[in-house]
Amino acid sequence: MSVSRSELLRWQFDLTWSLFDHHLAAPAPEDFLWEPAALCWTVRPDGTPDWADTEPEPVPVPTIAWLTWHIGWWWSVALDHANRRTPREREEITWPGEDSAIAWLRGLREEWLVVLERLTDDDLDVSSGYPWGEEAGLTFAHTVAWVNSELMKNVSEIGQLRLLRSARPKASG
Q: Which Pfam families does the record cross-reference, listed alphabetically (predicted)?
């Protein structure tokens, strides 16, 4: 059986999304802003995420809220590039809150599926500067593979945070 590169990338995306869908099924609103460590990145009440242009050392532990914003940010910009729109700046993309975050991410998935459905192997060979810049000399196939990898990484981080939160000792009343 022969599988095209675009079919393989779509399969990988679907596999990654199925893992994410598992974690999106049951978060409680209080899970999003739970701070797992003293040094933590989260989002502010206005939806603005913590950020540093140079990654700090040590790296702050992100909250699920921050991670869902992060996914929404890079995925929105990837969609801008894929659809030949002017890419939004990071500061333009705010977190919609715990009541809307999952719907936001599911909506981005639907938009990304449209991109994946129209992709041919020739489309994958087109030059793409996202996320590394034009000077990297990479293709849209690299962008799609990066989206899959970045989503998989962020999904595992969210899953780990959910596990840690659920494993905490319960406060006695």
A: DinB_2
- Residue 44's SS3 state is coil
Element (H, E) at 42: none
Give the number of C-alpha atoms closer than 13 A to the C-alpha of residue 22, restricted to the C-beta side: 13
Q: In whole angstroms, what is the distance from residue 10 CA to residue 24 CA?
A: 20
Per-residue tokens: 29: 């609103």
Question: How far is 128 from 139, CA to CA, in rounded Å?
Answer: 5
Residue for token digits 């599911």? 106
The pLDDT tens digits for 63-115 are 999 999 999 999 999 999 999 999 999 999 999 999 999 999 999 999 999 99
75-105 residues labelled b (16+ CB within 10 A) or e (exposed): bbbbbebbeeeeeeeeeebebbbbeebbebb
DSSP state at residue 49: B
| Contact present, 13 and 147 (Cβ < 8 Å) | yes
What is the C-alpha to C-alpha distance for residues 6 and 144, in angstroms, rounded to an integer? 9
Question: What size, in residues, is the chain?
Answer: 173
130 in Cβ contact with 142 (< 8 Å): no
**pTM of the model as a whole:** 0.94
Q: What is the largest CA-CA distance in the chain?
A: 62
